[in-house]
């Protein structure tokens, strides 16, 4: 199998300088947990306005960490100091680990990996993607050093959910996969599972058909949005139902994940239902735009 052998050894220097590309929900969360773990974090956003919005998002989450007793005021302040923003990817030259977290679009991601490969020249640097579904090999092959490329798949909300899926390809070096795993586990305190480089990896291969089935239920009038969610929360003790969860993830992202899983496996269960397509076309993509299956203030 493509995956490199698991090992507890930490290869090479400890990672203390991280770059995060994108400060949307996931990029902001990844930058936040790195800063909270005493790591120097540089975040790329396309414009100053988006960078300001990303910083505000992180500060709000740090405030939530304080109000829920997870971190102290001092820890919040120190984490905020460790975060810097840039709109020039060229500033990433000294990064030891870069986590890409831009929208789920293969063309955009491959262009970023090709550019990053030229900028980050340290052969030990780890170039990671937080993609939900795009095979990591496609991103690795956009670079000249595919041995440095891995998937590090975090879960939303990143400060709360303890999992990282580590995805290595046929080309990823053992040293790089060991460094990435050690960083997620020992520095960020996450738990790591390994997945083969298959679209959707472990979690989304199971989650996305379930979310799409719930959307098909709404589409066919089988049950209401509220009753489907209530049934799952009360009947299966999930923290939220599938339609609230779809809104949280983002319907645009779910459509993109479904498209890439369908492209890989050609299974009808991964094919995005028309209701999902229409909602994305209408811009009703969930919590981040204030309207999806539910409305958000
Ligand atoms: N920093 C630190 N801790 C925080 C925090 C922050 N910014 N925000 C919240 N928390 C903590 C709270 O203190 C609380 O901790 P305790 O349980 O110890 O009290 C816990 O997180 C829950 O927070 P809240 O009580 O404020 O919120 P909630 O109970 O309504 O839960 C939720 C919200 C965490 C989102 C929960 O509903 C949940 O876990 N939902 C499921 C989320 C899920 O399945 N995510 C995966 C999506 S799939 C994915 O990510 C992969 C992909 O590729 C699409
Ligand atoms: P989001 O919509 O919140 O943020 C998207 C980010 O991409 C923003 O920073 C935006 O500025 C940037 N972006 C958009 N177009 C761009 C372009 N042309 N060039 C460069 N940057 C661009 O999305 P998100 O939920 O943070 O998802 C980001 C990644 O994380 C995706 O690959 C997604 O599949 C993955 N992911 C999402 C979740 C989730 O629950 N939402 C969970 C795990 C992984």
UniProtKB/TrEMBL annotation:
Q: Kindly list the residues the record flags as site (Important for catalytic activity).
A: 153
Source organism per UniProt: Hoyosella rhizosphaerae
Supply the alphabetized keyword list: Oxidoreductase
Identify the PANTHER family for this entry: 3-HYDROXYACYL-COA DEHYDROGENASE FAMILY PROTEIN (PTHR48075), 3-HYDROXYBUTYRYL-COA DEHYDROGENASE (PTHR48075:SF9)
The name this protein carries in UniProt is: 3-hydroxybutyryl-CoA dehydrogenase
The record, for InterPro entries, names: 3-OHacyl-CoA_DH (IPR022694), 3-OHacyl-CoA_DH_NAD-bd (IPR006176), 3HC_DH_C (IPR006108), 6-PGluconate_DH-like_C_sf (IPR008927), 6PGD_dom2 (IPR013328), NAD(P)-bd_dom_sf (IPR036291)
Ranges where the 3-hydroxyacyl-CoA dehydrogenase C-terminal domain occurs: 200-296
Task: Identify the residues that the record assigns to the 3-hydroxyacyl-CoA dehydrogenase NAD binding domain, covering every copy.
Answer: 18-197
Which SUPFAM superfamilies is this protein grouped with? 6-phosphogluconate dehydrogenase C-terminal domain-like, NAD(P)-binding Rossmann-fold domains
Give the pathway listed in the UniProt entry for this protein: Lipid metabolism; butanoate metabolism
Q: Tell me which Gene Ontology terms the entry assigns under biological process.
A: fatty acid beta-oxidation
Q: Mention one GO molecular function.
A: NAD+ binding
Describe the family membership recorded for this protein in Swiss-Prot or TrEMBL: Belongs to the 3-hydroxyacyl-CoA dehydrogenase family.
């Amino acid at each position: 199998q493509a995956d490199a052998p698991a090992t507890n050894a930490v290869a090479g220097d400890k990672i203390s300088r991280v770059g995060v590309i994108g400060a949307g929900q996931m990029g902001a969360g990844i930058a936040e947990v790195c800063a909270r773990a005493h790591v120097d974090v540089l975040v790329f956003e396309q414009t100053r306005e988006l960078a300001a919005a990303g910083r505000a998002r992180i500060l709000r989450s740090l405030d939530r960490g304080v109000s829920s007793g997870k971190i102290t005021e001092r820890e919040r302040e120190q984490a905020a100091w460790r975060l810097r923003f840039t709109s020039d990817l060229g500033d990433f030259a000294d990064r030891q680990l870069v986590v890409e977290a831009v929208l789920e679009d293969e063309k955009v991601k491959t262009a970023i990996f090709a550019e990053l490969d030229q900028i980050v020249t340290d052969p030990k640097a780890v170039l990671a993607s937080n993609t939900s579904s795009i095979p990591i090999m496609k991103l690795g092959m956009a670079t000249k050093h595919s041995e440095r490329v891995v998937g590090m798949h975090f879960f939303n909300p990143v400060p709360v959910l303890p999992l990282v899926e580590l995805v290595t390809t046929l080309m990823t070096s053992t040293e790089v996969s060991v460094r990435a795993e050690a960083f997620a586990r020992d520095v960020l305190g996450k738990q790591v599972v390994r997945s083969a480089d298959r679209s959707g990896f472990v979690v989304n291969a199971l989650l996305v058909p379930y979310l799409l089935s719930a959307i098909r239920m709404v589409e066919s009038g089988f049950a209401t949005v509220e009753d489907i969610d209530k049934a799952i929360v009360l009947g299966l003790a999930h923290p939220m139902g599938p339609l609230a969860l779809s809104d949280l993830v983002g319907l645009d992202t779910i459509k993109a994940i479904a498209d890439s899983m369908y492209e890989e496996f050609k299974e009808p269960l991964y094919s995005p239902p028309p209701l999902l397509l229409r909602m994305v076309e209408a811009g009703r993509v969930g919590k981040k735009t204030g309207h999806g299956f539910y409305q958000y203030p």
